[in-house]
## 1
Amino acid sequence: MAVDPVQLAVFAVLGLLAIVSGVLVFVVDSMARATFALLVSFLAVATLVLMTGLAYLGVVIVLMMIIEMVIMAVFMIMFMMNPAGLMPMSMFHNTRGATVISGLVFAGLAAGIVGVDWPQRRAAPPADATVALGEALMGGHMLTMMVLGVTLFATIVATVVLATDRGRYDRLGDDLDAERADDPAGGGVGR
Amino acid sequence: MIVEVLSLPLLMAVAVWFVSALDTVLGARAASRPVRLGAAAMAPVRESARLLVGQRRVTLAADGLLRWAGTVSLILGAVLAAAVVPLGQRPVADLSVGVVWFNAMEVVAWAAVWLVGWGPNGALSLVGGYRFVAQGLSYELPHMFAIITAALAAGSLRLTDIVDAQAGLWFVVLMPAAFAAYVLSAAAMSFWGPFDAPVARDVAGGAASELSGVERLLFEGGRRLLLVAAAAMAVPLFLGGGHGPWLPAWTWVVLKTVAVLALLVWLRHRSPTIRMDRWTEISWVVLLPLTIVQALVVALVVLARGGV
């Protein structure tokens, strides 16, 4: 199969960008810069996914990663022990262990790429990859996906319930019969 | 194709000028000053010139790179989001996942405003940046349900398909709650009144408090570009796109966009800035269930019509 040189060049540039910005996450001493270096890395990977023709997946990665990195900025910087994360700090933890683990993972993945006998494509690519993906996910595995969704959601709710220091008895009194909820911040619908 | 690519930024710039001029007119009327249309039309130009020659304000230990990235990406995100809006029959980019693309490009504003707030190393601007993230977390889910309801009714994420599906009936009739949620989130997305708490006076201008000169011009321009992109998107999603009698399609798109923009500018002058804690609860307790029920209703209509 012939490789389009332009595509190859774009692929190489994006791959390099992903790696360099990934390394930058650990080089910069500002958590804000680290967060957004990581975002650049993810966006480069999303563009690589777009290059494989998976338009929906690629754009969703862009959408989710931007939101996730901004939320991470909130959690990492706003809730940090040093005031608002304004002090410069190193992103390294457990340097030696991390080096060994990441080296092993890299070697394993690289060996996989080189060593595996990649199959030839037998069928034609689908006309609409989004539809094909949706059917593959939802068609035969609808029940699995539903259960998975409910489980994830239950986990989120349970985590929040366990983490909050105020429950319904704090809000509505010992007999849950208070006229108005006693909340530290007033809401918009006046409960 | 090349015509559309060139005309899109130009059209958006004209719309930004329209928003600013109308804003000046309504502001003068609210303050009981005499309304001079000529002066209002020149006001955006005059303000831009003032900011272009204005002195730069420098803060201590600022993160200039991130602040610059925020200002630039605010504008880039707005223009790229508008690239999938059909100007008449065709958009600049008729993506098969246009709705998702629009959503992905508009959330660039989340990062952008936070970065602009973080960059100057100032407390008030940082508060403004965080307020915008809180606002984003509140409007985004109802917003996503609203836009996906339009895609659901059309059975496609492609904007031109969504417009085609409205040949008989505009989606605003079928899904009024989704349209209302969308218009509110369009104002919230561009932190436009009543959702301008991120740049509110009580925090001395919030995210924009340390911006001056060219950077402030770009930031305010980017904010209005976002408003224009969001208003223009309401047209293919809910208002039938280019559908309409007598006039050519692009005229209808322009007219409807101007109408939505006028509504948003008017809304800003009719309502006070809404506090973040109030808005968060309204959004999660009222708007989110409302848009989910709206999506359910539309899904049942689609099923009843025999489409999947």
## 2
Amino acid sequence: MQDKVLTADEVVAELSDGMTIGIGGWGSRRKPMALVRAILRSPLRDLTLVSYGGPDVGLLCAAGKVRKLVHGFVSLDSIPLDPHFRAVRQRGELEVAEFDEGMVLAGLRAAASRLPFLPTRAGLGSDVMALNPDLRTVTSPYADGEELVAMPALRLDVALVHLNRADRHGNAQYLGPDPYLDDLMCAAATRSFVSCEQIVPTEQLLENSPPQTLLLNRTHTDGVVETPRGAHFTSCAPDYGRDEAFQRHYAASAGPDEWEAFRARFLDGDEQSYQEAVADFHARQAETV
Amino acid sequence: MITRAEVCAVACADTWRDAGAVLASPFGTIPSIGARLARLTTAPDLLLTDGEAMLLAGTPALGEESSSPVEGWMPFGRVLDMLTGGRRRVMMGASQVDRYGNQNISRIGPWDRPVVQLIGVRGAPGNSVNHTTNYWVPKHSTRVFVESVDLVSGVGHDRARQVGARFHDVRVVVTDLAVLDFTGPGGSMRLRSVHPGVAVSDVQERTGFELAVDEVTETRLPTDEELELIRTTIDPRNLRDREVPA
């Protein structure tokens, strides 16, 4: 079987300007943040993101990587709004295709099933129709004749997701309470890359876990990256929870000067220096308490 | 002394009374107290989540969700599927709401360059055309109750009629001042009850459009049992006063 292990930078080398990229997780939960940080370090630009948005969206917006966002919301969960997403929107710099979160699901399902669209009620009567002038409705061909929204397929060039465990061949496992829509993101994408907390031998995947934790099979994964704490500062249960103190620091650092300092301290180096800077952040916090 | 927050919590609880076995999705502290209070009194069959993917068999205090046994699994993707089948009832927030119950949580100001970017339409378009939807407004003001919302996220009665949304069921708005429903002319907002100590004119002054007003009652007070449950079982840390100050 193919060995698909890559580094985060090798994954990013597979991406190109203008691509449509789906990012897994939900809000500030199990986001592929190490892969996002690798994109921040790259010259990639003009990306279209599809995301149940959290700080993945905020960071990529802050770095000017995003041309268009397809989404239903952007939130840090314990902090309702992401300040960078707000800022780029309020400067009029970000194009958005905003849908009901169930419409995003329908669009991903259509793409995963190679269908042009799927019908849904969500959106009817709301301004989502006017926000997205290309949206069309479809009339049921059956006796009910109901008018429904024809949610177009959201085809992704690439999906990026972060799971707890994977093997070298791209079988990947979630150990937390929620798969989010990661499997669907991968199925809707031409190519998918999974980062994980730990790469383990295939025979160890089910040593302590039931088979339904195996969310992704290798038909859907083109690369596997081992990147411990790679979802930081979002949650990656049960390996770790959301780093609330660090998330507060991130949200409080959105002003121009503060952001310059945040970026220099945490983001300008590689993943290892990021993780070391986070450890240093917590050590200093502990001293001041 | 009974606080305004407690009156609001009971008014929220009353919105779940006839819900049966459905997933309850309350947004905000007072709606969360309301849903738990309903489960402990009039609506024992409600399903409650821990805010993540677990359905709680118990009815724990706010913030103590992990102490409860689990009765089921409800990850986000499954919530999105379940709501299309109608076995769910929400109480959402509203940054703006108009006389027909059109709600906005997406953005204030022009669409391309909003003055204030909010969270996004989230599940509001789908919720409001798929199952019973109510709203909670912790600070009743003309900023929230507007003649026309800047962007329709949750669908109101006028638009639902126009598109023939057969499962549309937006019922009430509970605020820190009053309970409002949509039994006014043409499905417009009507003042159902004012909370004790609030005058009808107070509500009208803090509403940016004319309310239908006929027989306004006073919002009921919590019973002794309800007060005990709120204060001791559901919200012993008194988080409710942070949302609606005493």
